[in-house]
Each structure stands twice: as C-alpha cells, then as structure tokens.
Write a structure and sequence with these properties.
By secondary structure, the protein is an alpha+beta fold. The protein contains 17 helices and 38 strands. It folds into four domains: about 260 residues, Beta-galactosidase, Chain A, domain 5; about 130 residues, no CATH class; about 120 residues, no CATH class; about 120 residues, no CATH class. The protein has a nine-stranded antiparallel beta sheet. Strands 4, 5, 6, 13, 17 and 20 form a six-stranded antiparallel beta sheet that branches. Strands 33-34-35-36-37 form a five-stranded antiparallel beta sheet. The two termini are about 20 Å apart.
C-alpha cells in the first residue's frame, strides 16, 4: 500500500494545494510535512509531542534542510516561501516522494542520490530519520540542518523568542530552551559531525495555506548547527539521526522506522482486509487512536493536526476505527474511558486541549454512546463488559427522560428537545460573537432518530440481561408514532430538520432516521428521503450540510475564521456523511446494481487519498466544487464512516 509520486507527478502539483502527510505517535503527537518538504501550515513539523497526552501539542523540530556540495557547486534542497514572495525551489531536485507507512524523499543532483526516510517513535517523544546517500562520479559533502522551535504547534515564534543553551559534541547536539527549561532537545547522528551555521536563524518563514485563511503571521526557526557528512565517489553511506525531547531512545533510527512500519502492517493484517481500498482506510484510521493520560486509556482524536478527543466524533467514528478493524481492546478502552466521565446522563462533548475538565454541551454524544456499546456487543459478544456498562446506559436514558443540562429532555409526545439560548448541542454547533449560526433548538431530527434507537437498544439489552424492558418498548413505540406524525414534511417530500419550531431546511440530518439500525420510516418515505438527499445534498466526497438550492447556501469554505464559521454548516460538504448516505441508499434500494453504484461512490475517494492529506480523508470540502478539501487535513469520522459503510455493506466483496 504505497502512495508514490514520481518527478512527473511532482512537477504537475498545484502549488496552492500541495499534498501533506501525517504520521501519528500514538500519544497525540505526530510528524508531518508536505511532499515537497516545504512547510505551508504552522502545524507541520517533524517532532510534535503531546506533553499532556493527547493534548498540549508542542513542536520541537520543524524539519531538516539538506544541501549538497559537489565540485564547488552547492545544491540547496530547501523548499517553501518567504512573506516577500521569494520561493525556495529546492524541490526541483526531488525525484520521488513515497508514503508507505513511513515517508521517503529522494533527491538527485550532480550524480548524487539522497534518500531521506522519516517516522516518529510510536509512544512519542522522538522522530527518526534515515539517510542513504550514493555518490557516483564525484566526492561530495552533504549538509543536514535541523530547524528547532519550542511552540504550540499552531502558533509562531520570533527569532528573539528562540534562545537556547547549546552543547555540541561530534554528531550529538543538546539544546536547553530558555522558554521551556523543564525540557531539552537532543539530536544524535551515527556519522558526520555538527558544525556551527553562519546564520543561526531561519526567519520570515511564510505559511501560504494559513495566509489564505487570514493568518499571515511569519515564523522563525533556530538552526545553530548543521551535520556535515562527506561521501566519497563511487560509495554509498547510511546516516541515522534521531531527534528527541528529554531523553534519546535506546533504539536506533533504523529500528524505530522499521518498528513503525511493521506495527502499521500488523494492524492492517489483523483487520483481515483483502480489498486494497479497505486496507488503505484501516491504515488511515490508525492516525486517530491515542493514549489519554487522564484516564490511562485509549481515546480517539477527532482529526489531525489540531483536534483533541470529542465525544460525538469518537462515538460516530467508533465502529469504523475499532470494530471494523478488529481493534477490540482499543474499543473496550474507549467505551470504559467515556463511561468514567458520564455526568447527569451526558458523556463529554470535548476534552480541552490544556487537559482541564471536559465540556458536556452535546445532546447526541450520549445517544451515540448507547449505539456504540450495542455495536461492540454485536461484534465481540463481550457480555460481561457490556453488563458493567449497563448502569451507565440506564442513567443516560433516565436523564434524557427526566431532563438534564442544556435544555435536553423528553417532551410529552416522547420526542427529545435540546438546546436553548446560546446553546449549540448538535453537531452543527458554530457560535461566534454571541451569534448562533445554525440554531436548531427544539427537536432536531437526528437527535430523535438516535433517541428512538437508544430506546430500542435498551429494550434489547434489558431482555438479554433479564431486566424489565416494557418501559423502553412502550416509549419507543410512542416515539415512532410521534416522529412520523411531526417530522414528515409533505411540501418538501422529506423530513423537517427540526420541529417545535419547524425548520424545513433540507439538510443531511434526516438520513440518520433511515440509516440507524432501528429505522423509523416506511419504505416509501425512506426512498423519498434518499431521493431528496441524492438530488440536493450528494457531492463528490460526502454530503452538503444544506441544500444547494437553498438561498442561504454558501458555495465555498474559505477566507478568515469568521467568514468560514458562517459557512461551516451552510452548504459545506462533510466527508463523514458518506456513511449515513450509503447505508440509507442501500436500505432504500437493496439491489446489486445499487451496491455497485455505492461501491463506485466510495471508490471515488481514491483520488482524494492522493491529494489533501496523503492516505487520509479531509474533514470538509467546498459545497460547490466538492473536490476542494478544507478544514482538518484528515478527520477520524471521515475515514471511519467511509471504511465502516464500505465493509458493513459488503462492498469490499463485490
């Protein structure tokens, strides 16, 4: 499973939309860059460590820059822009980029080939680089310059803020940052020697992507030394380099890289996928499963590079990331972790980046949790563990029936209301400057579809575990009747997005009433909802958040943050919605021809896997030109839902 870009692919790249890569360290940190080795967003860096896993992501090594001296000629392989517009074009020497569990750059100049392979140490705190250098006809000198910083991965620094005590001994560096005296940065190479650089700072580093979103701040990196490595004509040399915080790992760089690759290959093999597309998605999903220090358990990062673990995202991504892939111990850990934090029937919406107490402003995360527990039981048969969670599920249902925080509670018709004032408790949750952009107060359609499913799950579990089930069964029947009476909109031939007060906006939320295991609609209504979604919402890589025919439709997610926030759920296409669409479509049209159409739809993502984030699926896309990816480079629920629906519906077997 390789993603290969040869010199022709590289030459054809759109410089405004360069592919980027991310390799996760399992702790919330990562290594990242672009396929030209030029940084175009602040979050890209070779060593980004989560100091309070999986949060407090801090960049220590931005990248390494290579130069080659042959016969008095200097070839500079650095790439990227300055704010003046000056562009470093060292990527013209780049002949190949490969991502195959790890990443590899191959440069060639004056008969010398330099191959650089990169992988983070799984478990965090270090990154390994392996250089292979082959010189044909001439002696040469290779220079490798590490660029350091100490900053939040989404921030910038001025050169004056980057002060270090520096210790150099042969091929080893030790840097003590004045801004973070509790840490040190260590670099060790197996050959060559470090010498001082004439210019210790690389300043005015410009991030083109960030500038396009309204953040044109420039950055600086500290580059006190370069490693000089002579290579004789007709010979080949290997140099291993490790950069780490606080302590160098005992493993060699080659071992770290090999272990990283073997671990990913093992995960794919364990999942048992024979379909190449499914196997690629299994690999992509590993980015998001990380350790959380506060619980001592695994969790799911909503997306890279910037999201932490969100309850809603975790539960929606849960099946695709952990059950479809047979990562059952991780699945168990995640369910246990969130059960620890249940409060008043709610599981956390979000764990803050700085590691404080979680936020609970979500009406759907707890209902998705009930669904996730049932799916875990169906996959694993682990009845003792699910029995241990049953009291948590009972508290969730009781709290929703009696009413809990954020105006979440059951009405007399059995339907679930949620939100008031400035509350935003569904996934369409943007609030900016006191403005609720997509107010969905009342009874949102997907909340009530989830509520009905949760009641059906509880009835099933109660019978299985020998508890009374009638309270759940009776209430589920009432919800089904009330739902069909209140949510069907004859004028649009689909479902209201919200009732009480009624909102006829055509949005993808109605599909959850079709796709969840316990359906609410007749076959005729199901087909009408799917037809409406197909005509008004279906896009290249997901579903639009609002019908393209709506006068409020925003065609492009771009510009400064405020402008983007106002378009986030007003037409922007969301990748994760492909899951509910495919499930709904195949319920409406259970035929082989329909399955083949849905397989083709899923496989359309293969093009995207080579764009945006290499091997990943973006958070969102423009609503008009759905090929343009936006938001988080790779999103957990986008990957997970594509994988889940593809395998669950047997599309990998036709």
């Amino acid at each position: 499973m390789r993603y290969d870009y040869d010199r022709f692919d590289l030459a054809a790249l759109d410089r405004a939309h360069l592919p980027e890569w991310y390799l996760a360290d399992g702790m919330g940190g990562y290594a990242a860059g672009s396929i030209t080795n030029g940084l175009f967003r602040k979050h890209q860096g070779y060593l980004v460590a989560a100091l309070n896993p999986p949060t407090d992501r801090t960049m220590f090594l931005a990248k390494t820059v290579e130069q080659l001296s042959v016969g008095g000629r200097l070839h500079d392989f650095s790439a990227g822009k300055k704010s003046t517009g000056d562009e470093r074009e060292g990527d013209r020497y780049l002949t190949r980029f490969t991502e195959d569990e790890v990443v590899r750059y191959v440069y060639e100049a004056d008969g010398v080939e330099i191959e650089k392979t990169i992988a983070p140490r799984y478990g965090g705190g270090a990154v390994a680089l392996l250089y292979r250098i082959a010189a044909k006809d001439h002696d040469c000198l290779v220079r490798i310059t590490p660029q350091f910083t100490t900053r939040n991965h989404g921030d910038v620094r001025k050169a004056s803020e980057l002060t270090f005590d520096l210790f150099v001994e042969g091929a080893t560096l030790s840097l003590l940052p004045k801004a973070m005296p509790e840490h040190r940065i260590l670099v060790s190479a197996t050959s060559g020697a470090f010498v001082r650089c004439d210019e210790p700072y690389d300043e005015d580093v410009f991030f083109a992507f960030d500038a396009s979103t309204g953040d044109d701040r420039t950055d600086a990196f500290y580059q006190p030394c370069r490693l000089e490595l002579p290579v004789a004509a007709g010979s080949a040399t290997v140099c291993e380099m490790i950069a780490a915080i606080d302590e160098l790992p005992s493993e060699s760089a080659a071992t770290i890289i090999a272990s990283y690759r073997e671990r990913i290959q093992g995960i794919v093999a364990h999942a048992g996928m024979t379909d190449d597309f499914a196997a690629r998605l299994v690999r992509a999903g590993d980015l998001f499963i990380a350790y959380r220090r506060s619980t001592g358990r695994k969790t799911v990062l909503a997306g890279l590079p910037w999201f932490a673990d969100w309850g809603r995202d975790t539960m929606i991504a849960f099946e695709g990331l952990t059950l479809t892939t047979k990562r059952y111990p991780d699945a168990k850990d995640i369910l246990a972790s969130f059960a620890q934090y249940e409060r008043n029937g709610l599981i956390p919406n979000m764990f803050p980046d700085a590691g404080q107490e979680p936020y609970y402003n979500t009406a759907d995360a707890s209902l998705w949790y009930v669904h996730a527990v049932m799916r875990y039981l169906e996959y694993t048969g682990d009845e003792p563990f699910v029995r241990s969670l049953y009291p948590t599920l009972e508290r969730i249902i009781a709290a929703y029936c009696g009413g809990t925080s954020f105006s979440i509670g059951m009405d007399s018709d059995g339907l679930m209301r949620a939100g008031s004032g400035l509350d935003q408790v569904t996934w369409m949750d943007v609030r900016i400057d006191g403005i609720v952009v997509t107010p969905r107060h009342g009874k949102p359609v997907e909340i009530n579809a989830l509520w009905y499913n949760a009641l059906c799950v509880m009835g099933s579990l109660a019978r299985r575990f020998g508890h009374p089930s009638s309270q759940y069964d009776v209430l589920a029947k009432q919800v089904r009747l009330s739902f069909n009476r209140r949510f069907w909109n004859e004028a649009t031939q689909c479902l209201f997005d919200v009732v009480d007060a009624d909102d006829p906006s055509v949005r993808p939320n109605m599909l959850f009433a079709c796709s969840l295991p316990y359906g609410l609609l007749s076959d005729a209504r199901l087909r009408k909802v799917v037809k409406k979604a197909t005509d008004a919402l279906l896009d290249v890589y997901g579903l639009r958040s609002l019908s393209k025919d709506d006068p409020r439709f925003v065609p492009e997610y771009s510009g400064p943050l405020r402008k983007r926030d106002f378009s986030y759920h007003m037409g922007t296409t969301w990748g994760f919605l492909i899951g509910t669409y495919v499930d709904s479509y195949l319920k409406a049209y259970p035929s082989m021809s329909a399955r083949l159409r849905m397989k083709e739809l899923c496989h359309s993502f293969e093009t995207h896997l080579r764009e945006g984030c290499v091997g990943g699926v973006a958070e969102i896309f423009d609503g008009l030109d759905g090929r343009v990816s936006r938001g988080c480079s790779s999103q957990a629920w986008s990957v997970a839902e594509l994988l889940r629906t593809y395998v669950k519906n047997g599309l990998d077997r036709i």
